[in-house]
Amino acid sequence: MTNGRWLYSRRRFLAASAAGTAGLVLGGCDRLSSAPTFREFLAGAEGLTERVHRALLWRGALAREYRVADISRTFRANGSQDAYNLPPEHIELGQRGFSDWRLVVDGLVLRPARFSLPELRALPARTQITRHDCVEGWSCIGSWTGPSLSTILDRVGLLANARFVVFHCADELPRYIRGVNPYYESIDLIDAFHPQTILAYEMNGAPLSLAHGAPLRLRVERQLGYKMAKFLTRIEVVDRFDRIGRGRGGTWEDDGYEWYAGI
Ligand SMILES: Nc1nc2c(c(=O)[nH]1)N[C@H]1C(S)=C(S)[C@@H](COP(=O)(O)O)O[C@H]1N2
Ligand SMILES: [Mo]
C-alpha cells in the first residue's frame, strides 16, 4: 500500500471509529465525519475520561500477525463445511470453479454492485497470518489473502446512515430450518474499516477450500471464529439488524452468543 493510500485508509478507519463508538459514548454528537483525525477528534472532545480514550483506541489495535513457520499443520474446519449444510446450488457453483458465483453488495450504499471472483482477485490484496480462536476452545494459525473490506465499501460508497455490515452466507446449520435461516453475521463500521478485516479467497496460499468457506469468507481478526462468515453470497449495509434473522446480529448470537466477540 502506498503511503498516501495508507493515510487515506487510516483516516477512513478512524473516522468510522469516531462515528461508531464515539456516537454511542457521547450521544448527540453529530458532524463526526468532518473530524479530520481520530486523535484530533479525541483532543477536541470534552469530558472524555482516560478510560473512554483507551476503549476507543483499543478497537483500532491490530491482532498479532505470525510467521510462515507458525502456520498450523492442519487447520480444523468447523460449522458448515460440506454438502450437509450447503445447498446443492452452492456445490454446483463450486464444481464450475465458482465462475458463476457473484458477491452482491447492497443495502445502504450509493452504488450497489456484484463482484465476480476474478474481479475480487484483481483488487489490491492483503495477506495476514493470524490465529483463529473458536469459542469452543481451539485455535489454529493460518494465512489469509484477499481484498480489504474497506476497498469494497469504498467502491460502493456508504450512505450517511450506514452503521453495520451484514454478511449473508450460502449454508444453514442443522438446528436451523433449511431455507429459512441461512448463516449470517454482522460487524460495525469500526471493524469493517479495520486494516485486518479482509474478504479472503485464499488460505495458506491456495484457493479457499469448501470446508473453509469457498469461494469467499470474512476475516475479522479481533473477534472470535463465529464472526468469520464463510460461503459469502451477499454483503448488506444496514442501519439496524434487529429485523434480520432473529434480530441479534448473527446465527450464533440468535442462539445466545455475544454480538461483540472481542479477543
Ligand atoms: N457460513 C458459516 N460461517 C461460519 C461457520 C458456519 O457454520 N457457517 N462457522 C463459524 C465458526 S463457529 C468457526 S470457528 C469458523 C470456522 O472456520 P473454519 O472452518 O475455517 O475453521 O467459521 C465460522 N463461520
Ligand atoms: Mo467457532
Residue-averaged pLDDT, rounded? 85
- Largest beta-sheet characterization: 5 strands, mixed
How many separate domains make up the residues?
Answer: 2
Low-confidence stretches: 1-8, 19-36
Instruction: Tell me the total number of β-strands.
Output: 11
Distance between the first and last residues' Cα? 27 Å
The secondary-structure class comes to alpha+beta
CATH superfamily of the largest domain: Oxidoreductase, molybdopterin-binding domain
List keywords for this structure.
7 helices, binds molybdenum atom, Sulfite Oxidase, Chain A, domain 2, 4-stranded antiparallel β-sheet, 11 strands, alpha+beta, single chain, binds ligand MTE, 2 domains
How are the secondary structure elements laid out?
Elements: H1 3-26, H2 38-44, H3 50-58, H4 88-95, E1 103-107, E2 113-115, H5 117-121, E3 125-133, E4 139-147, H6 149-156, E5 164-169, E6 184-188, H7 189-192, E7 197-200, E8 202-203, E9 206-207, E10 217-220, E11 232-238
Parallel strand pairs: 1-11
Antiparallel strand pairs: 1-2, 3-4, 4-8, 5-6, 5-11, 7-10, 8-9
The protein binds the ligand Nc1nc2c(c(=O)[nH]1)N[C@H]1C(S)=C(S)[C@@H](COP(=O)(O)O)O[C@H]1N2 and molybdenum atom (MO).
Molybdenum atom binds at residues 78, 134-136, 225-226.
Task: Write structural notes for this entry.
The protein is of the alpha+beta class. The chain has 2 domains: about 55 residues, no CATH class; about 190 residues, Sulfite Oxidase, Chain A, domain 2. The chain is about 25% helix and about 20% strand. The strands form 3 sheets. A 5-stranded mixed beta sheet has the order 2-1-11-5-6. A hairpin with a 5-residue loop joins strand 3 and strand 4. It is globular. The N terminus is likely disordered. Bound molecules: the ligand Nc1nc2c(c(=O)[nH]1)N[C@H]1C(S)=C(S)[C@@H](COP(=O)(O)O)O[C@H]1N2 and molybdenum atom (MO). The site of the ligand Nc1nc2c(c(=O)[nH]1)N[C@H]1C(S)=C(S)[C@@H](COP(=O)(O)O)O[C@H]1N2 has 20 residues, from loops.
